[in-house]
Design goal:
Helix content is 38%, strand content 15%. It has 10 helices and 8 strands. It is globular, with a radius of gyration of 19 Å. It starts with 9 loop residues before the first helix and ends with a helix. The structure holds pyridoxal-5'-phosphate.
């Protein structure tokens, strides 16, 4: 076997195509920083979750080598397999939470069924998609058993699209209030998926609604002082989300390319 077989194609090395993850990641960081500046916000207040669903471990490693530490997955089985293969730092355990130089954090961003809670809980640092009280209670049970706390965001269906998960906007406060009483859950904010449309104003309305909900729930004292985060914005709309206050953006395609 000669050396040439191990060399990456020129186009990829030069960032002219191929996987080009380093270049795409750098571009995404630049776009995040520019959107933050335009909004008069500190870019450091925005955390990038690299959505790696459907992306193989080798390409996730490439992103890791570029310094990306937080990855989002929407399926339990895939998340657990990758966490086992690539390692994981999870939040809140006794003696845990110390980030090593190569610490990876997995965020569950998709709908979580109650019967999968036990499998996923040991591997995640955050759940973006809390959408019911029974799910919150199931999480609390398993977390207590592990002696662990978990950061969670309540998912809100801000667009009313029937295909989307999440509580209705007028149900968000009640779920936050109930979940915040569970000892093992730290309810740190809200999450939404923007409407599937090219209508910029409709997308903006959804993000603005989430921001207003967060402020109202916080002002009403229904959650603790950590209740401050907005997870919103994907490849197609993250700049708009940052303009409306996103503190987590969940970006897949713009980093890893189109999914198969
Ligand atoms: C897939 C997915 C994303 C990322 O979508 P892209 O358009 O690829 O950036 C973000 N959030 C959730 C909940 C997802 O399922």
């Amino acid at each position: 076997m000669g050396n040439t077989a191990q060399q990456r194609p020129d186009a990829e090395r030069l960032g002219l195509g191929g996987t080009g993850i380093a270049q795409r990641l750098a571009l995404v960081h630049r776009r995040i920083a520019e959107a933050a500046c335009r909004a008069g916000r500190d870019p450091a207040s925005i955390t990038l979750v690299a959505v790696s669903k459907g992306v193989e471990a080798a390409r996730i490693r490439e992103a890791l080598q570029c310094g990306q530490r937080i990855f989002g997955e929407n399926r339990v089985r895939e998340l657990v397999l990758k966490a086992v293969e690539l390692g994981a730092r999870t939040a809140g355990g006794p003696g845990g939470g110390e980030p090593g130089p190569a610490a990876v954090e997995w965020h569950m961003i998709g709908h979580l069924q109650r019967n999968k809670v036990r499998q996923v809980v040991p591997h995640i640092a955050m759940l973006h998609s809390l959408d019911s009280l029974p799910l919150a209670e199931e999480l609390d049970r398993h977390l207590q058993r592990l002696g662990k706390r978990l950061d969670v965001l309540v998912e809100v269906n801000t667009s009313g699209e029937p295909t989307k998960f999440g509580v209705a906007p007028d149900g968000a406060a009640e779920l936050v209030r109930c979940a915040a009483r569970l000892a093992s859950l730290r309810v740190v904010g809200l999450m939404t998926i923007g409407p599937n449309t090219t209508d910029v104003e409709a997308i903006r309305r959804a993000f603005r609604l989430l921001r207003e909900l967060l402020a109202r729930i916080r002002d009403d004292g229904l959650a603790g002082p950590d209740f401050a985060h907005l997870s919103m914005g994907m490849s197609g709309d993250f700049e708009l989300a940052i303009q409306e206050g996103a503190t987590f953006v969940r970006i897949g395609t713009a980093i890893f390319g189109a999914r198969a």
